[in-house]
Amino acid sequence: MRMSHYFLSLAVLAVGGLLATALAGVAGWDLHLWIALPTAIVVVGLHSLVILFVLIGGRLLREAINNCGLDPGFLARNNAYFKSVSGLFLTIGGALSIVAAGVLGYAERAFSIPPEVHLLVGIGAAVITLLALPREYRALRTVEALLDETRETLAAEDLNRAAEGLGPVDEGHVPYRDSQSHIGLFLVIAPVLVYLYRALIVWRGRFDRVDVHPWLEISIVGLVIWWLGRRKGEGDASGESGTAAGSNPTE
């Protein structure tokens, strides 16, 4: 299945959920909350899916441009969605407005906000989502078409190069890999963040309830890996400098 097929499936669930939520809210049914919460999750996921797919498509096209000589116009066509007021802003507005409607539904009890405010925001969120759906679907289809065209273009170029006895268009591409020092730095920071999350969020500042193990040990290992990576990087840089200084410029 293509991404647009998943989008249509979620869109059916979202539209059905929005209609059922509105009906339950107006009728005052107790099921309103139980319908509204999963519907809001589906709506946010639906809008997020579009943004992520456009971003991923842009990343793939950028790699093809940088490493395979693809025409930069492909990326410009992909990013047109982010420049359109009726595109990205509707998508973000649909996601944020449905969250705001849910928050106002709870705020009605906590802050004595009139229920009409929640009703109006909820209707507005539904309208924004319904307006965004056709545009989002066209954006997904556009990105899918661009990726298909890119695959066909690069495949044809590979065939032409093979007929000339050359390798594929990306034969000189070297994949990026994180350095040892970067991996070590990640191992230093990540356990600290996990420890702070457990202490500040889970136990609400009661550090005595949170064990530092194994987070401390993992950070120490990461610190060692980072230090060894830095030494290795400095050694490689010194070796390259020495080779360059000892080379004969007249050769």
Layout of helices and strands:
Blueprint: H1 3-27, H2 32-68, H3 73-83, H4 88-111, H5 115-163, H6 180-202, H7 215-246
Overview of the molecule:
The protein folds into 2 domains: 3-163; 180-243. It contains 7 helices and no strands. Helix 2 packs antiparallel against helix 4 and helix 2 (32-68) runs parallel beside helix 5. It starts with a helix and ends in a 5-residue tail after the last helix. With 251 residues, the protein is mostly helical. The relative contact order is 0.09. It has helices spanning 3-27, 32-68, 73-83, 88-111, 115-163, 180-202, 215-246.
For the record, the count of structural domains works out to 2
Question: Residue ranges: pLDDT <50 for 5 or more in a row?
Answer: none
Global outline: flat
Q: What is the residue-mean pLDDT, rounded to a whole number?
A: 84
- How large a portion of the residues is in β-strands, by DSSP E? under 5%
Oligomeric organization of the protein chains: single chain
Fraction of residues in H or I helices: over 70%
Query: How many DSSP-defined strands?
Result: 0
Q: Give the end-to-end Cα distance, rounded to a whole number of Å.
A: 58 Å
Which structural class best describes the helix and strand composition?
A: mainly alpha
Largest sheet: none
Helices and strands, in order, run as HHHHHHH
